[in-house]
Amino acid sequence: MKKQRIAFIGTGVMGTSIIKHLLRNDHEVTVYTRTKEKAEPLVALGASWASSPAEAFKNKDIAFTMVGYPSDVEEVYFGDNGLFKTVEPGNIVIDMTTSEPSLAKKIYEHAQSISVESLDAPVSGGDIGAQNGTLSIMIGGDLTTYDKVLPLMKHFGENIVYQGEAGAGQHAKMCNQIAIASGMIGVCESLAYGLKAGLDLPTVLQSIASGAAGSWSLSNLAPRMIKEDFAPGFYIKHFVKDMKIALDESKKMGITLPGLALAYEMYEKLMEDGYGDNGTQALLQHYR
C-alpha cells in the first residue's frame, strides 16, 4: 500500500510494537506520549515526536490512539490539545484503546459531523501478539472505512474482523475480556492444584495445553507464572478497568455475570496489594 502519514498517540507496551511495524513498512509516523523519554527509542528508529495529540495529527492522514482509560481517550480526542483540534475532512481516526462503547459512538458521531471517518478497534493478543504482528483486532464503524485501513492493519494484526456499527468493536472486546477473566481463574487454580499434588508443572502443561483445556492464557501466560515472571504483557490496572466497563455494560443490558464479578473482585484485591503494574498472570499471587 502507499506510504501513509500517521499520528500515533500512546507508546505503551503494545503501542510501541505496533509503531515499530508501521516504521518497518516505511510509513511516516509521528508519536505523542505524556512522557517523552518513553518515545525516544522510537524516535531513534525514525519516528517523529510531537508535544501534543493535536500537533502529532497536523497534516496527517490517519491517527491511531492507544491510551489507558476512557478519560484519557476523551482528552486525546476532545481536549484543548486533542486530535479534533487539527483534524481535516477526509482524515481517519482509529481508537485501539479498550474503552466504553458509548464513547466510541460519541467519537464516531462527532467525526461524522466534520466529515472525518472513525473506527473503534480494540485489540487482543498482548505484548507477544503486538511484537509478532499477530494481534486480533475487533472493529466497529463503517465497513467502507474498515476496507480502507485493512491493508495498514495487516502490518500488525492477523485476525482482523469487522464487528458492526460504531461501538461494536468495543462490545466484542468486552466479550474477549469476559472470557479471559474467568479463564485466568481456571489457569491459576489448575497450577495451584498441580503444585500441591507435587507435579512438575511444565510437564503438566505439555499434556493439558494442547488438549480440551487449551487456551491462549494457558499456553502463553502459565509458563510465565511457573517462572514467577509477572512482567506486564497487559497491566492488571488496565484489566480491572476493562472488567469494570464490562460489568457496567452488562448491568445496562440486564444480565448478571457472576464469573466476571468474581474475577473483578480478585483482581481488585491484587490492585490493593500493589500489583497494579504487574501483568494479568500475577493473579497466581492470589493463591499464595
TrEMBL record:
Keyword Hydrolase among record annotations: no
Stretches of the chain forming a coiled coil according to its record: none
Gene3D superfamilies: N-(1-d-carboxylethyl)-l-norvaline Dehydrogenase, domain 2, NAD(P)-binding Rossmann-like Domain
Keywords from the UniProt entry: NAD, Oxidoreductase
Residue intervals of the 3-hydroxyisobutyrate dehydrogenase-like NAD-binding domain: 167-286
Keyword Oxidoreductase assigned: yes
Domain 6-phosphogluconate dehydrogenase NADP-binding: 5-164
Family statement: Belongs to the HIBADH-related family.
This protein's name: NAD(P)-dependent oxidoreductase
Organism: Lysinibacillus pinottii
